Amino acid sequence: MRIAFGGIATESCTFSPWTTKLADFWVQRGEEMMVGDRHPFFAQHEATFLPTLNARALPGGSVETAVYHQLKTELLKHLAALGPVDGFYLDLHGAMNVVGMDDAEGDLATAVRAAVGPDCLISASMDLHGNISNRFVRALDMLTAYRTAPHVDYMETRAKAVAMLVNCLQNGTRPHILRLPVPVILPGERTSTEVEPGATVYAALQVSDSVPGLIDASIFVGYVWADELRASATIVVSGFDDAAMQAETQRLGQLYWQARHDFVFGVPAGSADQCLDWAVAAPNQPVFISDSGDNPTAGGVGDVPAFAERLLARDDIPSAVLASIADETAVSLCHTAGLNATVTLSLGGKLDPVHGRPLTVTGRVIHLSDDDPVAGKIAVVQVKTSNLILTQHRKPYHYIADFQALGIDPAAHKIVVVKIGYLVPDLKQAAAHAFLALTPGAVNQDIPSLTYHRIQRPIYPLDPDMEWEP
Ligand SMILES: [Zn+2]
Q1: What is the Cα–Cα distance from 140 to 409, expressed in whole angstroms?
Q2: How many Å lie between the centroid of ligand 1 and the Cα of residue 334?
Q3: CA 70 to ligand 1 centroid distance, Å
Q4: SS3 of 432, please?
Q5: pLDDT digits over 256-274, tens only?
Q6: DSSP label at 439?
Q7: 49 beta partners
């Protein structure tokens, strides 16, 4: 049994002025893909797994057209060199947007299908924040997605996509996919599976697992910051029994639709100043505040200094850490000035001049490092009672260890501001309190305020009073 695998994965915000370039992708080609811990489950199967290309980028702006075509061409070249294969495992995120192209995953899956031929089985694994077109699922035979947000089941999901593929190849069976778009588009911050109604909606998938004739049922929240024709929630069911699959897509679609008004933020949400008021008044520390509008893991740019401006305007902050602002020029200036130097910086608002403007600050350089694999050079600057983390390249601060690497203990500060949406488990565990700041940026949480031109209408919440039947 010969199974090829690979993919191109990112999440692209079409409201971002910043584009994703080749240097933003982490690319593995051929045998390089067998190194590392991405596919420990391959060993469980009596199959030969044949690598093509795996390219992954941090969420960001749309992928530049030439970059996508280069990566796709390389993937297909590696695939062609393998000769005939029985199966293909497509390892995706599902919300990639390419400049000037509709439905990038549909394009990629269709190209892989054309290369492997009609008899090969293709299985895909995805993030539940993917946008799913009809063209995309037509190119596949089966599909599964995360059932948790935060995505703690990422490894299980990849393992399931491969197990489904191997089982079908062994049994000589060929499933098909049913897709039901649900006209709802909501941000991940309101659809976490750790709080209601997300927890109940996603728990309904356990019932799907025992329905005969199905091999997988998935609920896609979709990706809200993409002004695309395919952007919406989608129910996707893979299996063999069309009637059972129809019934299950309708049941899950109805459940998601009925819950649409109840999806709210999992923590109190307000303006930057409201969150700072709540944080100062909170009994314990550290208080984590999500600077959500500029969250790089949702596709925000990560250099909008709007929250920093509010933080530094106040005189009632006992101590704070702000992570982070990507600003190569400012970091370089700090490195030139040296440790303990006083620097005046024009901070941020350069990569995303649409949602931010540079903020002038004067402070003392308290940390310098230059070997972070994602951020490159880093500087920490103390301004008043706040420590600002500045990075050469965009980097999310989503692990306590990332702070500790800079000599910063979050627990030693009253307030920790992170460019993130809902807190990932590591930060949630560390937080005495958590608030979500509705800040400006490419991934602004005020969805009805976004200017959409291409998304299919009507859709909730842009058309709040619309009716729908699955
Ligand atoms: Zn996601």
Answers
A1: 47
A2: 34
A3: 25
A4: coil
A5: 999 999 999 989 999 999 9
A6: -
A7: 3
